[in-house]
Design a protein that fits this description.
The protein is mainly β. The chain has two domains: about 180 residues, Jelly Rolls (Sandwich), CATH 2.60.120; about 110 residues, Immunoglobulin-like, CATH 2.60.40.2950. Helices cover about 10% and strands about 50% of the residues. The strands form four sheets. Strands 15, 16, 17, 18, 19, 20, 21 and 22 form an eight-stranded mixed sheet that branches. Strand 3 and strand 4 form a beta hairpin. The longest helix is centred in the first third of the chain and has 28 residues. The N terminus is likely disordered.
């Protein structure tokens, strides 16, 4: 009898210990959040980013620089751009400047384990390609709480850089502080042309976000961080790599509305190297759901068509749309990423 009770107590203690270990392991994985407002994909507009100062010289060129929103270009469509337009013959080398400022955002007070800045950028020289324009950008992170400002990323693009490409860099942030991102650009002519000079250049930015990784506060290094690695699985798949693979895979085709259900196809790119768990949801905007959320498992290199139940209050608005935003939260091993895709919407009887 005593032996039985002893075994029973040992089993209970082992169970408690296992539960505690599992809870610790889950919290140790931590969390990943992107700022501002989940990251800026610009599929629904400038998303709170505001145009800063802009100028173009010399005045004799009748050139103009501006920060503008481009609804048609990006991945998915939508980006912010620094645009420089020159309208008269060449009398001197032009130089255009423009800037963008993000909305303010506050990093929660947590045990931060790392942070980095990411953006996709592309440069279209337009009709000015003959004078070989070059564009440079500088990303600044302003700590509004501390009153400091730090350059966190910069780069130079030429006429060959028409396709979007990623740029990343580690940063340091402090929990509880409020920040703002700024992108300053310069587009300048590098070659004097003999012929007439007229055209518009566009330096575009998409998928801009500050990613902050944190633990639950019981482990990890205090309130500051910078340069820490992303979570990875046995294949060294990082959050950032997963996001890049998902973006390069494309939108997955149109969405189809039939009665109360929205049908969408989601996929798991083969390069991920393992199966994906994908939580999909249709959205009226990033903050307004149009459908219920559904999570499925998709094998690597495969895609699946799933049905999402349209919320009763959203049916009328969805039916009037030509395109619908679909959010996919994807997990592959310990890596996770969220993509927003504008899908063409097809109505079926």
């Amino acid at each position: 009898m005593l032996l039985t009770r002893t075994r029973h107590r040992v089993a209970i203690l082992a169970g408690v210990a296992s539960a505690a270990l599992l809870a610790w392991a889950g919290s140790a994985l931590g969390a990943t959040a992107a700022y501002p407002d989940g990251g800026s994909g610009f599929s629904e507009g400038a998303e709170g980013w505001s145009a800063g100062s802009a100028a173009c010289t010399p005045a004799e060129l009748l050139c103009k620089s501006e920060a503008a929103y481009d609804a048609t270009t990006g991945s998915p469509p939508g980006s912010i751009t620094a645009k420089t337009t020159v309208t008269v013959n060449l009398v001197g080398l032009f130089k255009g400047t423009a800037s963008w400022n993000s909305p303010k955002f506050t990093v929660p007070v947590e045990a931060i384990t790392g942070a980095d800045i990411h953006l996709d950028r592309a440069f279209d020289p337009g009709g000015l390609v003959d004078v070989e324009p070059k564009a440079t950008f500088t990303v600044t992170l302003a700590d509004l709480t501390a009153g400091t400002s730090t350059t966190v990323l910069s780069g130079e693009l030429e006429s060959e850089d028409k396709a979007f490409a990623a740029a990343d860099a580690p940063v340091a942030v402090v929990g509880g502080h409020t920040y703002r991102l700024s992108i300053d650009t310069v587009t300048a002519q590098s070659t004097a042309a003999v012929s007439a000079l007229s055209g518009t250049t566009n330096l575009r930015f998409d998928n801009v976000g500050l990613t902050v990784r944190s633990s639950d506060g019981s482990r990890g290094g205090g309130g500051g961080g910078g340069g820490g690695g992303n979570r990875s699985n046995s294949s060294s798949l990082t959050d950032r790599r997963l996001l890049s693979l998902l973006n390069s895979a494309g939108a997955g085709g149109p969405a189809a509305l039939k009665g109360r259900r929205l049908f969408v196809r989601v996929g798991c790119p083969a390069k991920i190297g393992r199966a994906c768990r994908i939580a999909a949801q249709g959205l009226l905007s990033r903050r307004k759901p149009a459908t219920a959320k559904r999570t499925i498992r998709v094998a690597k290199g495969k895609s699946r068509r799933i049905a999402l139940r349209v919320k009763p209050r959203a049916r009328g608005r969805v039916a009037k749309r030509k395109r619908l935003l679909v959010r996919e939260k994807v997990r592959a091993g310990k890596a996770q990423a969220t993509v927003y895709r504008q899908r063409k919407l097809i109505l079926k009887g």
